[in-house]
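Q: My collaborator sent me two sequences in one message, no labels, and asked for predicted structures for both. Can we handle them in order? The first one she listed is below.
A: Yes, handling them in the order given. First sequence, followed by its C-alpha cells:
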Amino acid sequence: MTYCVDFPEPGTAVEWSLTASGVERETVAYHPRFYVRATGAGSLAEIADAIRPHPAVTAVEVEHHRPGWRHEPTPMLAVAVTTPDAVARLASTITSAGRPGEYRCFNVDLSRQFRYCVETGVDPTPNRSPRVLRLAAPPIGDAGLEPVTATTGGETRCFDADPATIARGVEALIEETEPDVLELSTGRLVPALFDAVDGALRLGREPGYTQLAAASSYESYGQVGHSPARYAVPGRAIVDAGNSFFLRETGTEGILDLVARSHKPLQEAAWASIGNVLTAIQIREALARDVLVPWRSWRAERFKTASTLAAADRGGFTFSPAVGVHEDVHELDFSSLYPNIMCTRNVSPETVCCDCHPDREDVPGLGYSICPEPGYLPDVLQPLIDDRDEYKRRIRAGEGDTEALEGAASAIKWILVSCFGYQGFSNAKFGRIECHEAINAFAREILLDAKATLERHGWRVVHGIVDSLWVTPMADREQTDLGAVAEEITDGAGIRLEYEAAYDWIAFCPRRNDDAGALTRYFGKRAGEPADETASYKRRGIEARQRSTSPFIVDAQLALIREFGRTRSPEAVCERLRTFVDRLRAGDVAPSRLAITNRVSKRVEEYSQSTTNVAALERAADLGLEKRPGQSVEYVVVDDEKAGRARVALVREDPTQYDADYYRDRLCRAAASVLAPAGVRREGIETQLADRVDGSLSAFGTGPDD
C-alpha cells in the first residue's frame, strides 16, 4: 500500500509503496479539488466564469454535496487545480469576492498527502514494518553541522568530521541501508546536510528536498508553542523526533495505528497534533456521508439566557481534596468517561439542541434537547473505545506483541482524551460549544450520583476529579464490597466504573499559600508494590512531575517521598534532605544533573525582567542558537548573584560548576511539597535544617505564616 506521496510537478503525484523486497514507485495524474458554495446573492455561474481562465485551474464543474450534517445536497462548484498549494490561494480569492460569507469554500485546508488519500481512496497504511534510520545531532547553530550519530538495525555509527564529509557519510549510509523512514532529532538536519555540500545530495530515493512549512510560534490555551520547519525528501517519510508528540508518547507502532484510522500517511501522522488526527478521522467519516469539510468555522453559539449560560459554563466536576495523608485508599476510574458520554447519550454537533425536537429536555441542568437520530460523533468514537478496550484486554492476557498493543492503546487514549475538549475549540471543523456544555453536564451528574452511592455503602470520597474518585472506608460504618458498589454505579451510569488501584497511603497537598486543597497535587504508594521502587509511587503536580525540574531535584524528591512513606516522620525526611544539601555543598553533583529545561514564551528582547531564563536566552543567542517562542532552553545556574548571561551556562557548554545556594532553595521547595500534607511548611523545614539538636516535632511550623 502507498505509504508516502510526493508531488514533483503540477498535475502529477508519485506514490511510493512498500513491498516485501523494497519499494515501488508509480506516477499518476492528480488534480486536487475544493468546493465553493454560494449563499445570499452569490452566483456560482459568476465565480465559475471568473476562475476558469486562471492558470492553476484545470476544471470547474457543478456538483451536489452536503455542506453540513443536517443539510441536503446543495449545488456547488467543484474546482480542480494543478497543485495542492494552489487550493488555499484560490479559495482566498473566491471568499474575498462579494459580501462576507457570500461564498464559502470546503475541503480547503487539508494537508497534502492526506488530501491525496481521501480524494483518491488510497489507504496509506504500510503493508510491512518500515525500516527506520535514526539520525541525531546537537542543536544546529551558526557554526553549521556538527557530529551526527546514525542508528539502524541495532548498529550505531558516528560521523565526526567537517560538515561536507559528514553529509556525504550520511548519504552513503542511506544508500547502503535503504531506509523507509528517516527519524531525525531535529528537522533542521535536512537543510543542514544539503547546505554542507556542493552539488546534489540524495537523502531520499531521488535527489533534492522540499520545505513544506516554515518555523512558526503560536499560542494555544495560554501556552506558547513552537512548530519547527517541516521538510520532505522523495520516497521516504521524515519523522522529526523533536516535533512528534505521538512518537514520544506512543512510539512508531502507535503512529501506524493512527495512520490506519485517519488515513494520514506516516510522515503527516507523526507531526500531527492530537486534534489534527482526530479531525482527520472525523473528516473521513464526514466525506463517507458526503458531508464536505468547512474551511473556517462559522457556527455561532446559540443565544442563551444568563441563568443557562451560568449553568452551562461550569466545566467538569472536581471535589475539593481532603488535605492530609490517608490510609487504605482505593482509586476508581470511569472508563473513557467523556467519549462514553458522547456515545451513550448520543451527543454530537448535529443532535444537541436539534430543531426537530425543541420540546425535549435531555441534558441535566441545561434543558438542551438531544435528537434520537444517531449522531455521527458516536460512530467516530465507538470503534476507538472498543478497540482500546480490546487492546488492553489482550495486553492483560499476554496475547500478541505487547509493545505494539501498548503503543496502539496509548495512541487511541490520547485521541479519546482530546475529543471532549475539541468540541469546545473555536476552530474545530465539526465542534460545537453546546456539545461541550452537554458533556460536562452529564459528567457532573454522573460523578455526583457516584459519590452519593459510595457514601451510602460506607465509603468516603476523599478526592474526585474529571473521571476519577479516591475513596477510603468510613469510620464506624460497614462497607459494601467495592466491586459490587462499582457494578451498581456502572449500571446506573451506563458507563463502566473500573477499579484502578489500591494505595497503602496517599497524600493530598494543600495550596502553597493557604490550607485549601490543591486539586491536582498529590502522591501516594500503591499497595503490594516494593517500597524502594520509584514506580511504586504515583505522583501528580509536584516537582518530580514537572518538565522544568532538574534531574537531581527529581531524584531527591522521590527519595524524600520514599522516606516519608517508610517513617511518616518529618524529622526523618529532613535528615534525608540534609544528605542532598550536603552533596550540593560539597560539589558532589554533576552539573548536568542540575540542568533546568524551560519553555520560552517570548523573544529575548521582549522580556522586561532579568531572569535566569533571559540569561540563558542571551547565551544561546551568543552561540548562534537563538530560541524562538515555544522552544525550550536548557541551562545550569552557575552564580545567581551575578547579572545577565553570567548567571547561567547552557548544557551544551558543559558547565563545571553550579550555584549550591540556588539549588538548595529548589531542594527545600521540593521537600515542602512532600511534607505539606503532614502540616509542615517551608519555615519548619528550614528550622530543622538549621538545628541538629532539636529534632522534635515542635521544631516545625504548621501554617503558611509560621
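Q: And the one she listed second?
A: Here it is, processed independently of the first:
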Amino acid sequence: MRPEKSLPYSDEFKSAEDYVEQLLQYVASTPVFQVLCGGVHIMDFYTTDPGLFYSVVPADWQPFLLDREPMELLDFLLRDDIDESLAKIESSGRVSPPPSLVQYVRDVRRFSLKRDVPEATAAASTTAKLPRKITMGMNVKKIHEVTQFSEYVDRLANAVSEDAPTTPITHLVDVGSGQNYLGRALASKSKVTENGQNGPNREQRDKKRLRRGVVAVESKGHNIAGAKGLDMMTGVMAAPVKPMRNKKLYQQQLLLEKGAAAKITDKVKNRIAKLAEAGQNKSSESEEATEGEGEDQTPTPPPKSKPTTIVADMRPRNEIAIEAYEQNQKLGLSAKQLQKEKDNAAAAEADNLIQYVEGRLENGDLSHVLSQVKPLQQDGESEEGRDSSELPPNFLTVSIHSCGNLSHYGLRALELNPAVRAVAIVGCCYNLLTERLGPPTYKIPGMRPRPTLQPVNGRVVREEERRDPEGFPMSERFAQFVPKMPETSKDTEDTFDKGIRFNITARMMACQAPGNWTEAESEAFFTRHFYRAVLQRIFLDRGVLKRVRLHGKEKDDTESPADVDDTDIAVTPIIIGSLRKACYASLPAYVRGAVAKIAAQGNGDGSASSAENSAINAAVAEKMDDLTDEDLEEYNVRFGGNSLRRRELSAVWSLMAFSAGVVESTIVSDRWQYLRELQVRGMVKDCWVESVFSYHQSPRNLVVVGVRQDEQA
C-alpha cells in the first residue's frame, strides 16, 4: 500500500529529508521565485510606464519571453526536454534563453513534486468502477475522482485493519462531504463487499469482514438534504415508510360515526368494516402475546398463507401533525430534538451505513462529531472469535478537495482524536488558507515586498494578519526555518524572516494547472486578464482610483519619474466579479459591462459596506459616464494593438503559474512534515504523499496519508 518514496520528489534528491531541506532553502532565499510567487499582481501591469514587466522580470530574460508565443513558452517551461529545446533554438537562429532562465526552469521542475500516479495505485484502480446509479449527479471529473479515491480509501482501510486487527477501521469520516458523492460510493462498496461479490478469488469472496459506516460532516444543511435525496434515489439509504392515507374514505367514516349512514354506499361500508376488523385482530394478537410472556411454551408461528394486514392512518396530514405537536408539548421536547430522534430511529430501523452530522469545524478536534457515532451491528464473528458488534468505533478521516484550513483540520484529527486511526486528505483551494506567521516580508533585492491590497469596495478582512495557529505552515520545521546566507553575501544584517510564508496571490496561483491549458483556453484566459489590466489603467487615468505608495507617504505627482520606484507604487483594486459571457467579446464590451455592474451594485459579491459601495457607485457613475467608444478604441490600440504589450502579460502570468507548482509542493510537503513530526513523537506509525488522480482529469491529485501508531505495538 505504501509507495516506495514517502514524497514523490525528483530522483535528483537523495531522500525526502534532502528534498525538504533544499526546498526550504530555495523558497526562502530565491529573489526571482519570490517575485513571481506573490510579488506581482495582474492589475499593476499597465498602471506604470513602460510597465511592470520591465521592473520585475530580469533584463536578460525579456528578449526571449517577448519572442515566444504563449503556447511556445508553456512548452518550454513545462513539457519540452530542455537540452533538446536549446539545440533546436540554436539551430533556428531565434532568440535563445539566457542561462539564468534555463537554470530557473530546471530548478522549478526539480522542486515540483511528481504528479504521475504510482504503478501500484494505478494497477489497483484499473478495474475500479462504480455502479451507474451511484454516479448520479456527477460530471466526468467527479466520477473519476470518486471512483479512484473510493477504491484507494477502501484499500487503505483494509491495510490499516490488517496491520492492527484489534482496532479495525469501522467508520469513514468525510469532512466537508458536500453532496456526499464519496460517502455514497464508499457505502455502496461496503455493501458489495459485505455480500462477497468483489473479491478476486473465491477465498476472498467468502471471507467475512466488518462493514464500515460513513459519517458525512457538512456545514450546510441544504447540502445534507440534497445528499439524503440522492441516497434514497440510489438505494444506499432506505426511504422512509410513508403512511397510507385515504382522505375520501376517512371523511366517509366520519359521516358514518355522525349517523349519516344514508349517504354511504354498501361498498364503502364494507371497506370501513374490514379496516375496523383488522384493527381488532391486531389488538387481540398483542394481548395474547402479553398474556403468554413468562410461560414455558414455544409460540406457534402464524400460518404462511395468512396475509399481513397494514392498518392505514387515513387522517389528513394536518390532523396528524396537530396530534403529534400536542404530544410533543407534553413531553417538553424541542423540534430539533424530535427530528433528531426520528432520524436516528429511521437510521436504526433501516440499518443505514451513512450518518450525517451538520456542523462547522473550527479545528481538528472531532470529538463532538465522533461522539454521535454508534457502533454498527455486525453479523457473525470477527477473526478473533468474538462478537464483532462489541468493537468500538475506529475512524479513518478522508476528504476530496477539502478547501483551505479544512485540510488542516482533517490532518490534525489524527493528533487530537485517539479514535482516529488514519487520515487521507486531498487538499484544494490554497487561497483560502490562513497564515500562521503573518504576511511575508522578505526583502527582495531591487524590489520591496508587495502586500496584498484591500479592494476599495471589498470587505475589510486581513486574513494574513490573523496569525491563525491553524493556518499555514502546520509543521514546526517550516515555521521555524531560517535560510542560510549565501557565502558571497557581504551583508551581515539578517535579511530573512523566520518561517515559510506565502501571500494570497502565491497561494491562489498554486491552484492553477498550466499543464492542462490548451491554446484556445489560454487565449481566452489571457484575454480576460488583459481586459482587466487595461480597465485598471482606465480607472487610474480617469481619477476613479489613485496611486498609492506601499511603503511610505502617498504618491506625489510632482516627483520626477527617476525618483519613483515602480515596485513601490500600486493602484488600489476594485472587485468586479464575474460578468456575462458577452462582455468578453471585446475591450469596449468588457469595460461597459464592468462599469454598469459596479455603478449598479458596487462590490461584486456584496461584502462592502453601504458607505463604501455608495462612494464607488458615485465615483464610477461620475467619472466613467462620458467614456466614449473612441476613447476605448484608443486604449485598445495603445495596449492591444501592440502585441508585445499583451505578450508581457501572458509571459509573466505563465511564469507565475509555472513557478506556483513549487508553492503547492511546499504546502503539501509541510503537511507531510507535520505528520513526520508526529511520527518522531511516536503518535504516527507511517505517513506518505502520492498521486491518486490523473493530473489531466484532476490537477489537485496529491493525497496526504497518515497512520496512527498502534498502542499495543
